[in-house]
Amino acid sequence: MEKENSTVVTEFIFLGLTQSHDVELLVFMLVLVFYLIILPGNFFIIFTIRLDPGLSAPLYLFLSNLAFMDASYSFIVSPRMLMDFLSEQKVISYRGCITQLFFLHFLGGGEMLLLAVMAFDRYIAICRPLHYSIVMNSRVCHALLLLPWLGGFIHSIVQVILILRLPFCGPNQLDNFFCDVPQVIKLACTDTFVVELLMVFNSGLLTLVCFLGLLTSYAVILFRVRGSSSEGKNKALSTCTTHIIIVFLMFGPAIFIYTRPFRSFPADKVVALFHTVIFPLMNPVIYTLRNQEVKASMKRLLNRHMVC
Question: Is the model's pTM score more than 0.70?
Answer without folding.
Answer: yes
